[in-house]
Write a structure and sequence with these properties.
By secondary structure, the protein is mostly helical. The chain has 15 helices and 2 strands.
């Protein structure tokens, strides 16, 4: 996925996510207003008798009820039209808000009524004041993500990064940079991590991933693989030999697995011979787990190098859980 595609995804996401509920609220309100308008226009006297409090405003006037029905219909059309063009919703909702808010204000001050004419506050809140408040809210321009939404997203991203740092035992500052400037990419990277951790590899798969990681990186990414391997029960002596360049002294098939990771990362033709040996001993599933581990091992070092977060590897000191080794 290109940078331009990610930018377009970020730009469109607020309309799809943050704005979807807003658009549907406008449509639902428009439908309710339209239904009331149709009732007033085609069954004016029935509407006059059925709606609580209306009879107290004065004798039935068919023309007046029809006029108000047209006003409700105009408000409904404006809201529905605005829901079809999100950028124009605030402007198109304005005439509907003026009518509904004015209508609510007249009810609030008791204009032309006699003790609310039998209507209840609950009826007025649901049928009059709430639609007016919703229409007024729809006239407010929606920020691309919303102040609250952006704050919550930032906090969630930071919490996820801190959890990752605690679990992996290394700093993930480059992920903070991605989360701050390309949140859509950050969310997609979370899926990549889920893929990488979906398979619980054995020792050979860990050694293959470590071999690939050491070909592409010799800093924090290697430390991540050391920590994950230790967490899954790989012996520290095995890891230490691999990191110190003595993987060839490991027992088979661990030595071949480490070399297989190196060969795949380097596109060395030896990988074909090693794959056949490993498949013959461990089976096809184990080789698939190695392939996933190798791909996962190379993924993040590539991103780090591209973002300028790769560190010099002249002398490295790796932590093996209480002891250290230089590579």
């Amino acid at each position: 996925m290109t940078t331009a595609t990610l930018a377009a995804t970020d730009a469109a996401r607020p309309v799809r996510e943050a704005g979807t509920a807003r658009l549907w609220i406008a449509r639902i309100l428009a439908a309710l207003l339209a239904a009331n308008a149709i009732y007033m226009l085609f069954a004016a006297e029935a509407w006059y008798q059925a709606v609580p409090g209306v009879t107290a405003t004065g004798p039935f006037n068919h023309h007046c009820v029809g006029d108000v029905g047209v006003a409700f219909l105009a408000a409904a059309v404006a809201l529905f039209a605005g829901s079809l063009k999100p950028a124009r919703l605030p402007a198109l909702a304005l005439p509907a808000a003026i009518f509904l808010a004015g209508h609510a204000l007249l009810h609030l001050i008791g204009y032309g009524t006699h003790a609310n004419g039998g209507s209840t506050w609950l009826t007025d809140i649901v049928a009059i004041y709430l639609p007016a408040l919703i229409a007024l809210w729809l006239t407010l321009p929606a920020a691309p993500k919303g102040v609250v939404g952006a704050a919550l997203t930032g906090r969630m991203s930071e919490a996820m990064i801190r959890y990752g740092e605690k679990k992996l035992g290394v700093s993930l500052d480059y992920m903070r940079e991605i989360a701050a400037h390309a949140p859509a990419a950050f969310r997609l990277l979370g899926r990549v991590s889920q893929l990488g951790q979906s398979i619980k590899p054995g020792d050979a798969a860990h050694l293959a991933g470590l071999g690939a990681a050491m070909h592409d990186d010799c800093g924090t990414c290697v430390q991540i693989h050391i920590n994950l391997a230790r967490h899954h029960g790989v012996a520290e002596d095995v890891l230490r030999l691999a990191v110190l360049g003595e993987a060839g002294t490991l027992p088979s098939p661990l030595a071949e697995a480490f070399r297989f990771g190196e060969a795949v990362a380097a596109n060395d033709p030896e990988m074909h011979e090693l794959r056949e040996k490993l498949e013959a001993v461990l089976g096809k599933r184990a080789v698939i787990e190695m392939a996933v581990g190798i791909g996962f091992a190379r993924f993040y070092p590539t991103i780090k190098r591209a973002l300028g977060h790769a560190r010099s590897c002249a002398v490295l000191r790796f932590d093996f859980g209480g002891s250290h080794a230089h590579a």
